[in-house]
């Protein structure tokens, strides 16, 4: 087992508690193998995500600030696998750093609940840790079952690279493509890799949501991908759960396995299906990975 | 809404936007339309992102708020990273949503507004979002019949234990409510 490189405060985010728990399970297991110690932030709350921030700005900032205050006490970077939480938490740190008056207001609210945040706390995405803190050499060293011949469409979505762009290019990200190569698989050209999946619109405006998601699924298929990988729970849900409806709306076959990037990493590291919670998937990812591994 | 009140609406909006990081850049819009061309949903909007700033300058923001426009923003930040004037346009959309909710200036049947409200309630109650509760509230308030169409997916998720039936309440819920009360008090002063 690898010795620990560093310890982080881990913020799973609400959707990793149930709907997307496979992302949480695979993240924890892959991090453990890479020696990245994730210690779950004690009693974390909602980040004040897009839907909350849309109608209640200051309350949303208080929600984020409570998490930041909890993380500050631990002294570690705050790490999340969810792109939505990533943006919300980073936005709160930026707003408070740029506007001392706002910070003072939020600080007064935190004090009413017996907490304090001086900041800034560094907020990071799990993808950032994997790429930068673990890095190419360590990842290549852990590959036990190279995913030779597996063609992967790397889907970045929006909020992991926009608006902050710290991990990768805002327009043409490519670092997940490199990661896929380290695992022995082949990234396919995927021009829509940073286009929007529609987010919550799959529920609130299904006609628009299906079109946006449909373009992604059909583009991945047209480019010869065997599967799509994601780094955001909402993107994952949109891409994997509505393929039949999307196929009907687009009048083309949009069925394709969808995995979290952490599941693909774990598969290459030789982890079991259970360690990666592959049984949770709505698309046939187990046969896909078993087939590839068996053929190696 | 009469002309004077609309002007005030625009002024309040400008004031709020100028308070956010880079918000002041909204005055530097050159009407190039990069935002509209980058937006994945602008084709379905009654007013495109570029037209929103034109409407602001013409003191006609109320028309924008009464349209479907701002509620079709999915917060993808394409406009924000591409704007040559550096306007954080996604945050402009957020501010317009809040203004619309505050003044009740959004079209009837704006499903995204109902979703946002239900989300806020779920988080305020538990400290975290409880998805089954969120969706129950959302469909009851919009179209209960469409809830039925979600049952097959619900069952597939349930079989994979991807639905948590009981919500998780954070331990610090009471303190969080005190924080929320404090920030509200601050706002009303």
Name its key features:
heterodimer, A: alpha/beta, Glutathione S-transferase Yfyf (Class Pi), Chain A, domain 2, Rossmann fold, 4-stranded parallel sheet, 13 helices, globular, B: 189 residues, mainly alpha, Fumarate Reductase Iron-sulfur Protein, Chain B, domain 2, 2 domains
Question: From the 3D coordinates, which CATH architecture of the largest domain in chain A would you assign?
Answer: 3-Layer(aba) Sandwich
* Low-pLDDT ranges of chain A: none
- Major pleated sheet of chain A: 4 strands, parallel
Structural class of chain B: mainly alpha
Number of domains of chain B: 2
Class of the largest domain in chain B in CATH?
Answer: Mainly Alpha
Helix residue percentage of chain A: 40-55%
Instruction: Provide the residue-averaged pLDDT of chain B.
Output: 94
- First and last CA, distance of chain A: 25 Å
As an assembly, this protein is heterodimer
- Give the termini distance of chain B in whole angstroms: 26 Å
Instruction: Kindly name the structural category of chain A.
Output: alpha/beta
User: Strand order of the main beta sheet of chain A, please?
Assistant: 2-1-3-4
Report Rg of chain B. Answer: 19 Å
Please give the count of helices of chain A. Answer: 13
Largest interface: A-B, 66 and 61 residues
Indicate the mean pLDDT of chain A.
Answer: 95
Q: What's the β-strand tally of chain B?
A: 0
How much of the sequence of chain A is in beta strands? 5-15%
CATH class of the largest domain in chain A: Alpha Beta
* Mass-distribution shape of chain B: globular
Q: Can you walk through the features of this model?
A:
By secondary structure, chain A is α/β, with parallel strands linked by helices. Chain A has two domains: 6-125, Up-down Bundle (Glutathione S-transferase Yfyf (Class Pi), Chain A, domain 2); 143-295, Rossmann fold, CATH 3.40.50.11810. Chain A contains 13 helices and eight strands. Chain A has helices at residues 21-34, 50-53, 57-74, 83-98, 100-112, 126-142, 175-182, 201-204, 206-222, 233-241, 243-250, 261-268, 285-295, and strands spanning 6-10, 36-40, 78-80, 123-125, 151-154, 186-187, 227-230, 258-260. In chain A, helix 7 links the parallel strand 5 (151-154) and strand 6. In chain A, helix 3 packs across helix 4 (83-98) and helix 3 (57-74) crosses helix 5. In chain B, 59% of the residues lie in helices and 0% in strands. The model of chain B has no long low-confidence stretch (mean pLDDT 94). Chain B is mostly helical. The longest helix of chain B is centred in the first third of the chain and has 16 residues, at 3-18. At the A-B interface, helix 2, helix 3, helix 4, helix 5 and helix 8 of A face helix 5, helix 6, helix 7, helix 8 and helix 10 of B.
């Amino acid at each position: 087992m690898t010795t620990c490189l560093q310890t982080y405060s881990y913020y799973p985010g609400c959707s990793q508690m149930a709907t997307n728990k496979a992302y949480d399970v695979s993240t924890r297991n892959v991090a453990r193998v890479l020696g990245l110690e994730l210690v779950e932030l004690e009693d974390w709350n909602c980040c004040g995500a897009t839907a909350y921030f849309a109608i209640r700005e200051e309350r949303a900032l208080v929600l984020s600030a409570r998490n930041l205050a909890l993380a500050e006490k631990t002294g570690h970077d705050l790490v999340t696998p969810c792109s939505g939480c990533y943006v919300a938490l980073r936005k709160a740190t930026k707003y408070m750093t740029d506007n001392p008056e706002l910070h003072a207001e939020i600080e007064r609210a935190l004090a009413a609940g017996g907490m304090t945040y001086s900041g800034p706390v560094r907020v990071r995405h799990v993808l950032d840790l994997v790429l930068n803190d673990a890095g190419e050499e360590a990842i290549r060293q852990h590959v036990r079952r190279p995913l030779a011949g597996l063609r992967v469409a790397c889907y970045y979505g929006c909020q992991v690279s926009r608006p902050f762009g710290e991990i990768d290019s805002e327009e043409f990200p490519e670092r997940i493509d490199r990661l896929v190569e380290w695992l022995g698989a082949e990234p396919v050209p995927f021009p829509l890799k940073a286009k929007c999946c529609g987010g919550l619109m799959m529920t609130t405006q299904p006609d628009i949501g299906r079109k946006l998601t449909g373009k992604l699924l059909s583009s991945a298929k047209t480019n010869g991908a065997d599967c799509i990988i994601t780094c955001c729970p909402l993107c994952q849900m949109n891409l994997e759960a509505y393929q039949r409806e999307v196929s009907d709306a687009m009048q083309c076959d949009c069925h394709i396995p969808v995995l979290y990037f952490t599941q693909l990493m774990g598969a290459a590291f030789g982890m079991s299906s259970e360690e990666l919670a592959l049984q949770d998937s709505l698309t046939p990812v187990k046969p896909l990975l078993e087939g590839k591994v068996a053929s190696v | 809404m009469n002309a004077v009140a609309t002007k005030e609406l625009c002024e309040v909006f400008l004031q709020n936007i100028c308070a956010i990081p880079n918000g002041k850049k909204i005055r530097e819009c050159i009407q190039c339309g990069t935002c509209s061309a980058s937006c994945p949903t602008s084709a379905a909007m009654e007013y495109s992102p570029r037209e929103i700033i034109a409407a602001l300058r013409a003191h006609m923001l109320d028309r924008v708020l009464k349209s479907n426009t701002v509620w079709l923003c999915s917060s993808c930040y394409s406009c924000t990273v591409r704007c040559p004037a550096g306007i954080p346009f996604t945050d402009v959309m957020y501010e317009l949503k809040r203004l619309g909710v505050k003044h009740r200036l959004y079209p009837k049947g704006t499903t995204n507004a109902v979703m946002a409200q239900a989300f806020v309630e779920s988080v305020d109650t538990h400290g975290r979002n409880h998805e089954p509760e969120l969706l129950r509230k959302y469909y009851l308030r919009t179209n209960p019949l469409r809830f039925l169409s979600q049952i097959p997916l619900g069952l597939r998720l349930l079989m994979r234990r991807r639905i948590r039936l009981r919500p998780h309440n954070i331990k610090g819920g009471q303190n969080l409510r005190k924080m929320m009360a404090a920030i509200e008090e601050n706002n009303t002063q």
